[in-house]
Predict the structure.
Amino acid sequence: MKEERILIVEDDISIAENIQEILELLGYVNIDIANSANQCIKVIKKYRPDLIFMDIKLKGDKDGIELGEIVKQMVDAPLVFVTSYSDPTIIERAKRIAPAGFIVKPFNTNDIHAIVEIVLYNKRTKPAPEAAVVKVSNESPFLVNDAVFIKADNAFERVPYEDLYYVEANGNMVSIFTKNREYSIRKSMKEIEDILPSHLFLRVQKSFIVQLGQIESFNTKDINLKSGAVVQVGRQYYNSFLAKLNTITES
């Protein structure tokens, strides 16, 4: 009996069960199936899989490649794409997130056996990342790393990140809502998104970026902030947003 936990993300139940049956024949007993991005994120938070099979053409707001990008940020587990397509454009998109491999439909027991054994062997023998490397990745290149300076009138005003509540797009301008005032800046949302630290701020809709520490409550449509503001969460952004938060659910 093999203890590694394997997640299958596939919206075609017959294919998911086929992969599951093959894995069980190979001795794997800890197998989970998710048929959507939302379910995938819940399973990863709960079980932290050792290997993930991901259907590229997953139905819903995000395909398997987009979901794979989110998954890569959540867990250090090798990702194997399952696809029936050999479109070079799709393969190029998939390659950018460095998957551990591909399985092409239709597949057989030998295909699954080979990819699982190789991928899990590589995972077991991969050197552990050094703590110093992790530390460097979180360091700010700026001398002041707890605040941003915003140009207002003729001076730059210091705004601590904890006092910057959210950002809203307003035509070719953005409105930055802080504890003490609102700033209007001629910048794009992409530029603001790149400036603000990603571990503190997240884009939750085409027109909104929120400070994660400001979140009081949320559902699939709205985010309620401690400041009293209500920000809409975009359907295409919800799974990325959910993946960033530590949540407890009934299932």
About this structure: The first strand starts at residue 2 and ends at 9. The radius of gyration is 21 Å. The chain is about 30% helix and 30% strand. Helices lie at 13-25, 37-47, 64-74, 88-95, 109-125, 131-138, 189-195, 238-243.
